[in-house]
Recover the amino acids of this structure.
């Protein structure tokens, strides 16, 4: 893996998935394994109660500069301004919405949220740190 860092000005072509938030380990930021009561990090061994799990943004995009296409994933609080809330608060809103609507797929974001994210990002040009 290259250690060269740089900036890339590119336009968003598509959103790669509809799951924008994941339960994240507070120590290593890896995805947590959740069940109804507990969470567990397979990478560092951190564990706790499911209600105390923290959430983090993860936005997978297909982007294009003038010459190439790239798959890129943007993580963390740099997405707070775009969503208008922290990942924790958005997770609570999604949970409440899914409960009210009877949605059983807890990994799915509501369709209206997916549409809003697509409207916000697709066709827009951003500078990505890579």
């Amino acid at each position: 893996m290259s250690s060269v860092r740089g900036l890339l000005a590119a336009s968003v072509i598509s959103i790669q998935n509809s799951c924008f938030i994941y339960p994240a380990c507070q120590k290593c930021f890896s995805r947590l394994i959740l069940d109804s009561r507990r969470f567990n990090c397979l990478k560092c061994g951190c564990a706790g109660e499911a209600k105390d799990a923290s959430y983090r943004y993860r936005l997978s995009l297909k982007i294009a500069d003038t010459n190439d296409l790239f798959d890129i994933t943007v993580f963390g609080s740099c997405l707070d301004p775009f969503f208008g809330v922290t990942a924790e608060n958005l997770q609570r809103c999604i949970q409440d919405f899914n409960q009210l609507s009877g949605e059983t797929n807890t990994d799915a974001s509501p369709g209206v949220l997916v549409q809003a994210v697509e409207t916000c990002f697709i066709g827009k040009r951003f500078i990505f740190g890579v």
Notes: The mean pLDDT is 91. The chain has one domain: 7-129.
